[in-house]
Amino acid sequence: MSQISAAAVNELRKRTDLPLMECKTALAEANGDLEKAIVLLRERFAKVAVKRGMNETAEGRVAVAIDGDKAAIIEVRCESAPVTKSDQFIALCADLAQGVIANNPPDLETFLSQPLPGKSGTVTDRINEAIGLIRENMKVQRFARLQGGHFGGYIHHDGTLGVLVQVEGSPANEEVLRDIGAHIAAMNPQYTRVDDVPASVMVAEKELALKQVQEDPKNAGKPATILEKIVEGKLKTWASENVLLEQPIANQAKYDKKSVGQVLKGAGLTLKTFVRFKVGEVAR
Questions:
Q1: Per-residue pLDDT tens digits for 172-225
Q2: Where are the domains of the chain?
Q3: Cα distance between residue 250 and residue 257, in whole Å
Q4: Can you list the alpha helix ranges (DSSP code H) found in 32-173?
Q5: pLDDT in tens, 103-126
Q6: Which terminus of the chain faces fewer neighbouring Cβ atoms within 10 Å, N or C?
Q7: Cα gap 230→265, rounded to integer Å
Q8: Confidence band (pLDDT; 50, 70, 90) for 29?
Q9: Cα-flanking dihedrals φ and ψ of residue 264, to 5°?
Q10: Rg (CA), the chain
Q11: What DSSP line would sit under 154-220, residue for residue?
Q12: Average pLDDT of 150-161?
């Protein structure tokens, strides 16, 4: 090992993004051959990945990446909660989110085989390196990529919940978009706008509201027109609980009791869509 220069070790570290001691050991085994050392490192970490591949990945982290008019959100799983807060795992999630932006993969299988921009090797190689270092199984659970307009992102403090918000309009207000992302994280709206609610859902909600109104003794003898207005009021309340643009924004004090739609309109923005990932949650 004494014959391996510090410059060679540093070069290998730059190429693989792995710890100095791992690089030094690999170079020694490869008799100073940089390319052979890279192969050795990949084989070593791939073996660790295979060994741990059946371990349950119940914990994880969500990452958001934004690059101009493109953005991505990704959920990456691991075995234990402490690992989700480690610098290595956080860096892995960030690298993979950037990879989704750059590669625009059509599906997970394709993504795993694609080269990871700025790194040596594929997405799978990068994951295997992290597995070899941390000694836990890891996998990409899901991702989404959006393009066009402006973006805002929000990640909950523990990393297990993230939101990506896509809007049109100018100029994009980062603070407003982050606040709306935090609102979506907290309130988990089922629909973006009223028009997105399936007709069958609206019919069912209206039937339920009408039944409640008719069974309420206080409404006995009231004209049908009055009952219809009460039903409309109930549907409006339902929308304010389930439809993002109709919901009162979570930070009411900051935004003077406005709805999310009103806040966006005031900022000159139009919501296109949002993506909300929570670790372990089944995608809708």
A1: 789 999 999 999 999 999 999 999 999 999 999 999 988 888 888 888 888 888
A2: 6-52, 53-147
A3: 9
A4: 34-52, 81-84, 87-103, 108-113, 123-134
A5: 999 999 999 999 998 887 899 989
A6: C
A7: 28
A8: confident
A9: -65, -45
A10: 25
A11: EE-TTSSEEEEEEEEESS--HHHHHHHHHHHHHH--SBSSGGGS-HHHHHHHHHHHHHHHHH-GGGT
A12: 95
Domain 53-147 in CATH 3.30.479.20? The answer is yes
Q: What's the pLDDT score for residue 131?
A: 84
Tokens of 130: 């992290």
The answer to whether residues 65 and 93 touch, using CB atoms and an 8 Å cutoff, is no
Retrieve residue 176's tokens: 């407003």
| Calculated CA dihedral for residues 96, 99, 100, 104, nearest 10 degrees | -160
Q: What is the DSSP letter of 248?
A: B
DSSP SS3 for 5: coil
What is the C-alpha to C-alpha distance for residues 232 and 38, in angstroms, rounded to an integer? 66
- Domain 6-52 belongs to what topology? Helicase, Ruva Protein; domain 3 (1.10.8)
- Kindly report, residue by residue over 257-280, the tens digit of the pLDDT: 899 999 999 999 999 999 999 998
Residue 140: what residue type? V
By CB atoms closer than 10 A (0-12, 13-18, 19+), residue 56 is: exposed
Phi–psi pair at 91, nearest 5 degrees: -65, -40
